[in-house]
Every structure is written in structure tokens, then in C-alpha cells.
């Protein structure tokens, strides 16, 4: 994808982690960046950093799971700048729990981000991209939507919903010039595990084969997808190898994930 001069990009989940790193990198490469997340103070700090470095940033503090709020944000973006030619959906929330350990509020929150946030943001700018005959939608997915692991039920379901949105868009957008890509990362050294203590220990031991990636490296991968859109991208390569193993030998891979992951407390084989 070759962006126009001073193109506009909307980045959700921009207050930290992959979203913040991606916004910085896009701004450094000439994009005007709309920063979307719920934490206004964090967004403003990032916007100040981008503008000090000579870039352009617009702060939109809102919950992207709220469709009406996203529509209002979209109107402001069009009025101040222009419709975006890029949307990066990196908003995500979630705790790793068995379903009975998960509260209804947590289930609702995890449905909101990433799935509803991505669906609302894509929808808000879809007509603009279709009218322009081009644009890119990039979703930050999770391996949980490909190879579920035990003890992350609602988290996994929300990531499957995001994957379903992407797959449906790929079919819908054939011939329109608008592309949808999903990028899967392994473990990322972001704030997630600090905000969700105890989750790291639930990663199946088989996942230890996959090197940890920094948010900055994730941003570089996403910029590569902006420049050359692809339907599915894995990073690092070891994650792709694991996915291939799951496709070729699903039963043994599933057995390894179960055997090296968290055991349900009610399971006779669970560790006391």
C-alpha cells in the first residue's frame, strides 16, 4: 500500500504496548495518527511526544466498544483532518480464567475489546474507504484464536470473534481495493502481564519455544503489513511453525497444549 501524502491512520489501544509503539512508528513515517483508547492522560503524553518529534497526533479518549462514541469520533476525524486510509485495531482486554472463574462483567469487557472495538472502528470508516477505492484494516490477533490453551475461555472466545471479523471482511472486500489483515504475535513484553498478575504462569510450556517480542518490533511488523498487505501474518517465525504443526497434526499439538498448560481444578489429573 502506497499512502497519500500525510495520510491519516486510526490506532486503537494506543495508550500502551503495541498500539503506542505503532502510533509512534507511523508518525515517524509521515502518518497523521488518531490515538484511540480509554486513558486520556496516557494518550495525551503520547501525542505530546509525537508532536515534539515533528509528527501529528489527535487524541480521542473513548471506549471503542461504544458504537455511538466511535461514530462521533469518526466525524471529528473527518472534520479536522480527513478519512483515514489505515485502521490498526490493537485494543484488547482480558484475563485468563476458566469460564466459571470469569465474572459476567469480565466477559462483557473482553467482548468489547478486541471484537466490538474493531468492528465499530472498521464500520465507522468503511464507507470512506470504499468511496476512496482503497484502505487497509489491520487487526492484532492472538494465537488463542488458532490454538486455544486451557484456562482462558472468555479471552479465547473474544479473539475468535476478532478472527471471524477479519475472515468475513476478507470475503466482503474482494475487488474493493480495501484490505483486511490479521497479525499474530507470540508473547509480547508489554504491560499485559503486569495488569493481569498470575496469567503468565498459565502459558503452556510449549509456548516457551516462541521468543518474546517487544512492542517496538511488533510495530515494525505492522508497518511492513501496511506497506505490503497480507491476509495473515505470524511473528516470530516459531509461531508460524507451531501453527503449521497444529494444522498438520492437530491432535498431538492439542495434547501438548493441554499437558503443558493449566489443569482444571476439577480434573483428576490436576496438580494439588
Put the structure in a nutshell.
The chain contains 9 helices and 7 strands, in the order βαβαβαβαβαβααβαα. By secondary structure, it is an alpha/beta fold.
List keywords for this structure.
alpha/beta, Rossmann fold, 272 residues, 7 strands, single chain, seven-stranded parallel β-sheet, 15% strand
Structural overview:
- With about 270 residues, the chain is an alpha/beta fold.
- It has a single domain (about 10-260), classed as Rossmann fold (3-Layer(aba) Sandwich), CATH 3.40.50.
- Helices cover about 45% and strands about 15% of the residues.
- The protein has helices at about 15-30, 40-50, 65-80, 105-130, 155-170, 190-195, 215-225, 235-250, 250-260; strands spanning about 10, 30-35, 55-60, 85-90, 135-140, 180-185, 230-235.
- It has a seven-stranded parallel β-sheet with strand order 3-2-1-4-5-6-7, sandwiched between helices.
- The longest helix has 29 residues, at about 105-130.
- The mean pLDDT is about 90.
Structural class: alpha/beta
What is the overall shape?
globular
**Structurally, how many domains make up the residues?**
1
Q: What is the N-to-C succession of helices and strands?
A: EHEHEHEHEHEHHEHH
CATH class: Alpha Beta
Could you tell me the radius of gyration in angstroms?
19 Å
Overall pLDDT level: 91
Strand order of the largest sheet: 3-2-1-4-5-6-7
Residue windows where pLDDT falls under 50 for at least 5 positions:
none
As a percent range, the share of helical residues equals 40-55%
Report on the biggest sheet: 7 strands, parallel
The portion of residues forming beta strands comes to 5-15%
Architecture per CATH nomenclature, i.e. the level-2 architecture: 3-Layer(aba) Sandwich
Distance between the termini: 54 Å
Number of helices: 9
CATH-derived topology: Rossmann fold
Amino acid at each position: 500500500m502506497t499512502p497519500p501524502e500525510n495520510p491519516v491512520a486510526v490506532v486503537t489501544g494506543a495508550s500502551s504496548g503495541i498500539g503506542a509503539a505503532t502510533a509512534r512508528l507511523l508518525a515517524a513515517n509521515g502518518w497523521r495518527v488518531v490515538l484511540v483508547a480509554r486513558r486520556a492522560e496516557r494518550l495525551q503524553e503520547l501525542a505530546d511526544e509525537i508532536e515534539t518529534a515533528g509528527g501529528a497526533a489527535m487524541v480521542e479518549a473513548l471506549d471503542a466498544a461504544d458504537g455511538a462514541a466511535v461514530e462521533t469520533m469518526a466525524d471529528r476525524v473527518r472534520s479536522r483532518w480527513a478519512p483515514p486510509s489505515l485502521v490498526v485495531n490493537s485494543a484488547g482486554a482480558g484475563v485468563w480464567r476458566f469460564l466459571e472463574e470469569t465474572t459476567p462483567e469480565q466477559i462483557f469487557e473482553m467482548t468489547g475489546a478486541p471484537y466490538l472495538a474493531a468492528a465499530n472502528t472498521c464500520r465507522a470508516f468503511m464507507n470512506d474507504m470504499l468511496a476512496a477505492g482503497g484502505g487497509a484494516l489491520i487487526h492484532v490477533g492472538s494465537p488463542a484464536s488458532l490454538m486455544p490453551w486451557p484456562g482462558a475461555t472468555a479471552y479465547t472466545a473474544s479473539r475468535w470473534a476478532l478472527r471471524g471479523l477479519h475472515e468475513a471482511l476478507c470475503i466482503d472486500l474482494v475487488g474493493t481495493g480495501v484490505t483486511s489483515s490479521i497479525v499474530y504475535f507470540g508473547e509480547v513484553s508489554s504491560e499485559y502481564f503486569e495488569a493481569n498478575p498470575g496469567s503468565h504462569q498459565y502459558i503452556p510450556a510449549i509456548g516457551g519455544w516462541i521468543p518474546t517480542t517487544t512492542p517496538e518490533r511488533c510495530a515494525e511488523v505492522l508497518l511492513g503489513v501496511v506497506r505490503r498487505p497480507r491476509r495473515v501474518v505470524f511473528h516470530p517465525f516459531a509461531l508460524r511453525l507451531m501453527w503449521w504443526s497444529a494444522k498438520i497434526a492437530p491432535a498431538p499439538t492439542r495434547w501438548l497444549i493441554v499437558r503443558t498448560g493449566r489443569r482444571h481444578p476439577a480434573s483428576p489429573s490436576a496438580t494439588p
